Amino acid sequence: MTDRRVDEKEVGVRPGERTVFVTRTYMPDLEAYTGMLRGIWASGQVTNNGPLCQELESALLPHHGTRHVLLMGNGTITLQIAIRALEVGGEVITTPFSYVASTTAVLWEQCTPVFADIAPDGFNIDPSAIEAAITPRTTAVLATHVYGLPCDVEAIERIARRHGLKVIYDAAHAFGTLYRGRPLLSYGDVSSCSFHATKIFHTVEGGSVACNDAALYDRMRLMRSFGHIGDAHHIAGINGKNSELHAAMGLLVLARFKEILERRREQWERYAACLSGVPVRTAHIPAGTQYNHAYFPVVLPNEAALLAVVEALGAIGVMPRRYFYPALNTLPYVNRSGGCPVAEDVARRVLCLPLYHDLSDAWIERIAEVLNRTVR
């Protein structure tokens, strides 16, 4: 295949832009951020739950739809603290189609991940597979709202109540998604979110845990800060705090979040229109969902077609991502008894196309054209 770089005039890219990655961090106004840094410098407090961290936590509450939110240092420590605070042990039923942190958090907390396959027509864990995987050692379900699309939260809640299980949602992608009029982050015993720089809302590095139970909130708040307040030590904790510098970034990004959501919706719909009729499967948005349009995944007809698309896009300087690959139940350090054929098949064929705030419409159209031509 010819290695041809796209002409800037052809696709309307910024001068000097030669590579399109799957995502690009949204950066707020530099002068505004510098102004906030001056305030941090003047106060001398850069961490330990400073005023900007507290301000951001308060600002995040309506986006979570819960009584309590804790700002954390990253989206992995949030899962670990949730598992520990809920006193989960034994077996945790989880999804094989997610980022690896969903599984490693379970392993890190000395629990056993039990993989339940995903639904044949989507990307999220199949409630019927959850039910089939329950044993006397099962204590919790850790499900991922993959690409910010809601799991079948009603079915999972019914199963959890029937069997006395805790429900943790890895909602790393779900900030800004509403389901049945509520933030998707409001479902489950605990929802964990990531604010990594690749996410639609970010604090460079960061995350959150959200819940409605006051006692659980107090426990997680202690765990976030080594388990002590002043000289009074209460429980064994770790360092899950974030900093004032990260909170400043989050406050500025949050102020532009409606604009970011609207631009992402326009881009997502442009992709969908350009790929209409192309023999690929795209994401189905469930009824009752106000989607954040965090990602644009396409499921190719087979892995050979995926690799051909990756090569063709790479030839014009576009770097999509096999997100998620491989299926987590195939990792070498997990119990590999039993397969998850749907997740394993999708993981071999799914590709996330570039999607970020300032990606031009011309790039979207060019990417779709190359994908269309290559698949056909």
In DSSP terms (H or I, runs of 4 or more residues), the helix count works out at 13
Structural class: alpha/beta
Spatial ordering of strands, largest sheet = 2-10-9-6-5-3-4
Give the termini distance in whole angstroms. 16 Å
CATH class placement of the largest domain: Alpha Beta
Give the topology string: H per helix, E per strand.
HEHHEHEHEHEHEEEEEHEEHHEEEHEHEH
- Percent strand equals 15-25%
Radius of gyration: 21 Å
Helix percent band:
25-40%
Which blocks of ≥5 consecutive residues have pLDDT under 50? 1-16
CATH A-level architecture of the largest domain: 3-Layer(aba) Sandwich
- How many strands, which pairing sense, and closed or not: the largest β-sheet? 7 strands, mixed
* Assembly state: single chain
Apparent shape: globular
CATH superfamily of the largest domain: Type I PLP-dependent aspartate aminotransferase-like (Major domain)
Written description of the protein model:
The model is unreliable at 1-16 (pLDDT under 50). The protein has 376 residues and is of the alpha/beta class. It has 2 domains: 8-25 and 257-375, Alpha-Beta Complex (Aspartate Aminotransferase, domain 1), CATH 3.90.1150; 30-254, Type I PLP-dependent aspartate aminotransferase-like (Major domain) (Aspartate Aminotransferase, domain 2, 3-Layer(aba) Sandwich), CATH 3.40.640. Strand 5 (138-144), helix 7 and strand 6 form a beta-alpha-beta unit. The strands form 5 sheets. The protein has a 7-stranded mixed beta sheet with strand order 2-10-9-6-5-3-4, with helices on both faces. Strands 8-7-14 form a 3-stranded antiparallel beta sheet. A 3-stranded antiparallel beta sheet has the order 13-15-17. It contains 13 helices and 17 strands.
